[in-house]
From TrEMBL:
<feature type="compositionally biased region" description="Basic and acidic residues">
    <location>
        <begin position="105"/>
        <end position="120"/>
    </location>
</feature>
<feature type="region of interest" description="Disordered">
    <location>
        <begin position="89"/>
        <end position="120"/>
    </location>
</feature>
<protein>
    <submittedName>
        <fullName>Putative transposase</fullName>
    </submittedName>
</protein>
Length: 237
């Protein structure tokens, strides 16, 4: 039976208890992004080539910042950086810039850097880093090695949207909502859908590169842009 992935935004009920741990992991994700970004830029300057995600994972897996997250979460950060570099490298717009660093520097009156701050980046847990307690509405999210202080996981009590039952969870994303000054969980579930019987009309599909698909209907048309496809790839991997 065909399946579809749906994302549900859930409120964290015990936010005060888990906010500190989520902050630590969000900052670790930013720092890993910056370290990998620096390495990729060095390789670009020295060889003229951008390292792919496999090289990034191989080179950075022993780096302390890599251990600030669960291994799959660290891999996801590097995959997103690799995709960002690939998009920049393949762009034909001279105004585009390579992926930036995730930090803000502060300087004194003499121009010396005195402080830097890192944003709380989104942290993604895949299935190996997730344990779902359906009975009590809780998620156990594995901590990175650097943050295991007597407990190996972050225990989040969640509130799902009305009439939503979370099943077949594929990934959990902890997303910091700066407007609300709190974390929330974006939970991706895989659901089976019934196959619909084919209709009487036909559609023509033109496959491309920048725009992967253009679909023509008898009285309408649909363009699926490449940037949307890349966003979906980032979100659901």
């Amino acid at each position: 039976m065909p399946t579809i992935r749906r994302t549900y935004v859930c409120r964290i009920q015990n936010h005060s208890q888990v906010a500190g741990a989520l902050d630590d992991h969000g900052w670790s994700a930013s720092k890993l992004w910056n370290v990998a970004n620096y390495y990729a830029r060095q390789q670009w300057d020295e060889t003229g080539e951008i390292p792919d995600e496999n090289e990034l994972k191989h080179e950075l897996k022993t780096y302390p910042k890599y251990k600030g997250l669960h291994s799959q979460s660290s891999q996801k950060v590097l995959e997103e950086l690799s995709e960002a570099f690939s998009s920049w490298f393949g762009s034909d717009d001279d105004r585009d810039n390579p992926p930036g660093y995730r930090k803000r520097n502060y300087y004194d009156n003499d121009g010396n850097r005195v402080h830097e701050e890192h944003p709380r980046s989104t942290v993604t847990w895949k299935q190996k880093g997730i344990r779902h307690d359906t009975k009590h509405g809780r998620l156990r999210l594995s901590k990175g090695k650097n943050h295991k202080d007597g407990r190996d996981f972050i225990l989040c009590e969640y509130q799902a949207p009305p009439a939503v039952e979370l099943e077949n969870i594929q990934q959990v994303r902890a997303v910091y909502n700066s407007g609300k000054d709190r974390w929330e969980l974006h939970i991706v579930c895989e659901k089976e859908i019934g196959a619909e019987s084919p209709g009487e009309n036909t559609a023509g599909v033109d496959l491309g590169i920048c725009n992967p698909a253009a679909v023509a209907f008898p009285d309408d048309a649909l363009l699926y842009p490449g940037n949307t496809l890349r966003e979906d790839k980032h979100y659901f991997q």
